[in-house]
Write a structure and sequence with these properties.
With 323 residues, the protein is α/β, with parallel strands linked by helices. It contains eight helices and 15 strands. The protein has a single domain, classed as Alpha-Beta Complex (Spore Coat Polysaccharide Biosynthesis Protein SpsA, Chain A), CATH 3.90.550. The strands form four sheets. The chain has an eight-stranded mixed β-sheet. It has a three-stranded antiparallel β-sheet with strand order 10-9-11. Helix 7 runs parallel beside helix 8 (288-303).
């Protein structure tokens, strides 16, 4: 099914190119609002406090749908040995150009030493329109990026790495896609990946469909943080697997999400994307894809081979000079 509708809101022309493919009859798109009935995108009568409906069927896993203390979203990012570039990265997002961004939380593992005074002074003295919190933590774990802390007042979190740069307009648009179509049922974000169910290969390019959105840049509901940190035996064991391999917390979240919702994530295609960590990040290791494929195999054993749900849907904002 393909739909193409242009929305003129606040003088800005946007387009959502929406095509969904049912894969093994698992990609249920019945909960998507028809584009002709959108009311909340960039204003209107919609509200981030309003749930999609009285029930989304996830209460047994996530609890009841409850209003957020604040609307909008919180950007949370772990930082590792990027003292020189971090101030400019923070400034890029905290300068007030993203209307729905409410707060930034930078996770600073103290195993790399205390956050330098120069960084703390920069955050304190810059007087950014968006509050910035440096959350110094004693324990260094990739699982920690999904830990719900009191400073998160919104229902939406944008998990991002501190080496990713996007146009603020793309970031705002990405949040609005999640707000209208995602909520607790679907993750959304800028980096899509796929797997081969025959051999659990991890695919990063030449995709005709996708089944994961990486938390290198992804929105999800904060209730999934509680699910990720569930103290049941399986989740405790799988978090240890992530710690032991120092990898794949994003793949684990994708499996948990799909396992309970039976729905695909949503890919938002940005116009501009700069990854400054291509040379020194975890993904720069030569055996990175091998480790990722091993994680896919492990989680498929735990949750089922057909857990991940594929889609070919693409959301992209329309540029001002379209046509």
């Amino acid at each position: 099914m393909a739909r193409d509708q242009r929305l003129i809101i606040g003088g800005t022309l946007l387009v959502l190119i929406l095509t969904f493919t049912l894969v093994a009859q698992l990609a249920d798109t019945s909960q998507l609002k028809p584009l002709s009935k959108l009311t909340g995108l960039y204003g209107g009568s919609g509200s981030a406090h309003e749930p999609i409906g009285p029930s989304d069927g996830l209460e047994s896993v996530l609890g009841n749908i409850t209003p957020a203390e604040e609307d909008g979203f919180t950007l949370i990012a772990p930082s590792w040995k990027r003292v020189d570039t971090l101030p400019d990265w923070i400034k890029h997002y905290a300068s007030g150009d993203i209307p729905s961004l409410r707060r930034m939380i930078i996770i600073w593992p103290k195993v790399q030493g205390d956050a330098p005074t120069s960084l703390l002074d920069n955050v304190t003295q810059s007087n950014y329109p968006i509050p910035v919190i440096i959350d110094q933590r004693e324990v260094n774990t990739l699982n920690g990026r999904f830990l719900k802390i009191d400073a998160i007042k919104t229902n939406s979190v944008l998990a991002m790495d501190d080496d990713m740069l996007y146009d603020p307009k793309d970031v705002e648009f990405g949040y609005q896609v999640w707000r209208e179509f995602g909520q607790r049922e679907r993750m959304s974000g800028f980096i899509a990946r796929a797997t081969n169910k025959d051999n659990n290969a991890y695919k990063i390019g030449g995709l005709k469909s996708y089944s994961m959105i990486l938390t290198k840049s992804a929105w999800f509901h904060t209730d999934w943080m509680h699910a990720y940190w569930s103290q049941d035996e399986r989740m405790t064991r799988l978090r240890k697997y992530v710690d032991d391999h120092m990898n794949c917390e994003d793949i684990l979240l994708a499996f948990i999400h799909a396992h309970h919702t039976r729905k695909s994530p949503l890919y938002v295609k940005p116009y501009k994307m700069v990854d400054t960590g291509m040379k020194d990040g975890i993904s720069a290791a030569g055996d990175h894809l091998k480790h990722r494929a091993a994680c896919v195999s492990k989680f498929a054993e735990e949750f089922g081979q057909d857990t991940l749900v594929s889609s070919d849907a693409v959301f992209q904002r329309m540029l001002d000079n379209y046509g």
